[in-house]
Amino acid sequence: MIEDRFIARLEQLVADGKRRILGLVGAPGAGKSTVAQAILEALRDRAVIVPMDGFHLANVELERLGRAARKGAEDTFDSAGYVALLGRLRAQRSDEVIYAPTFRREIEEPIAGAIPVMPDTPLVITEGNYLLLDRGHWKDVRPLLDEAWYVDVDPELRRQRLVERHMRFGRDEVAARNWVQHTDEVNAVLIESTRARADLVFPLA
After folding, report:
1. Range of the domain at 20
2. First-to-final CA distance of the chain
3. Which segments constitute the Phosphoribulokinase/uridine kinase domain (predicted)?
4. Distance of CA 15 to CAs 10, 18, 61, 144, Å?
5. CA torsion, ordered 203, 102, 80, 184, to nearest 10 deg
6. pTM of the model
7. Cα(5)–Cα(3) distance, integer angstroms
8. 111-120 residue pLDDT tens
9. Count of structural domains, the chain
10. SS3 for 173?
């Protein structure tokens, strides 16, 4: 999945053993998690994945704010908390383990303290939609990344993957297609507008 040139770039990035943070950005369904997992397998114990999705606001809070129907939009995350975690990961002490949250699609909720990041792990891979957004707290993410890769895939394939994902986690086909059209695709347009801020485009078939 990952061409040798990308592996070589990563090897160079972590060559001195110091903490580096790689951001993987792309529209919903682009394959960010797939790329992150492939990198993890290539670098083995030298990498860990810390997903932006761990900072989803809880469903009860989205309901309170009236944003449940827009879950996945830029204002449905704890963006300040995400920035704070990235800052901690950059400055991690040699005697501490930092715990990051994850997101469980089967319950559609974030889970705190689920991912241990060891101090001697040189590469943190963080993947998400808004890492290159230049407003709000999101604007503070890009300076904390050593590199940002934009994951690019055929739009029709991406939309089909999204429909299948939503159906896999409980929506019927009509509801899945409606969510993709009215929520995911609105977010995708915004995310595509940030593409120029990436260091490179990672093409994914």
Report:
1. 4-203
2. 9
3. 21-203
4. 8, 8, 42, 19
5. 50
6. 0.90
7. 5
8. 999 999 999 9
9. 1
10. helix
Instruction: Give me the average pLDDT of each 10-residue run along the chain (205 residues).
Output: 89 95 93 94 94 96 94 95 98 97 92 97 97 97 98 87 84 87 86 95 86
DSSP string, 1-69: ---HHHHHHHHHHTTT---EEEEEE-STTSSHHHHHHHHHHHHGGGEEE--GGGGBPPHHHHHHHT-GG
Q: CA 149 to CA 170: how far, in whole Å?
A: 31
Quickly count: other Cβ atoms within 10 Å of residue 204's Cβ: 19
Backbone torsions φ then ψ of 103, nearest 5 degrees: -130, 130
Task: Give the pairing type, strands 123-128 and 20-25.
Answer: parallel
Q: How far is CA 19 from CA 14, 30, 52, 67, 116, in A?
A: 8, 26, 18, 36, 15
Residues of 4-38 as b/e, b for ≥16 C-beta within 10 angstroms?
eebeebbeebbeeeebbbbbbbbbbbbbbbbbbeb
Tens-digit pLDDT profile for residues 30-46? 889 999 999 999 998 99
CATH of the domain at 169: 3.40.50.300
**Residue 133 to residue 26: CA distance in whole angstroms:** 11
Amino acid letter for position 27: A
**Which residues are 109's β-sheet partners?**
104
